[in-house]
Design brief:
CATH architecture of one domain: Irregular
CATH topology of one domain: 30s Ribosomal Protein S18
Shape: extended
CATH class of one domain: Few Secondary Structures
Largest sheet: none
């Protein structure tokens, strides 16, 4: 029997041009500013990766931690709202 070869699917991720929005504004993500944090969530309340948002790795780690804090305080949803 012939063995099937597994193919690697290469996906090209395009980084947005320009610096990180937090580095550019010289600020850090904060759980109290939940309206700003909501911009980094999908419609299904998932955190968007830095490959799509252009956030640097340092601020992406802080951003995810602050989103999780805002979720525990009830400022942001854990799951999408049911219409």
């Amino acid at each position: 029997m012939a063995l099937k070869k597994k193919r690697k699917i290469l996906r090209k991720v395009i980084k947005p041009a320009g610096p990180c929005p937090f580095c550019k504004g010289k600020k850090t993500p904060d759980y109290k500013d939940y309206k700003e944090l909501a911009k980094f969530l999908t419609d299904r309340a998932k955190i968007i990766s830095s490959a799509y948002t252009g956030v640097c790795s340092k601020h992406q780690r802080v951003l995810s931690r602050e989103i999780k804090r805002a979720r525990h305080l009830g400022l942001l949803p854990f799951a999408p709202s049911v219409d």
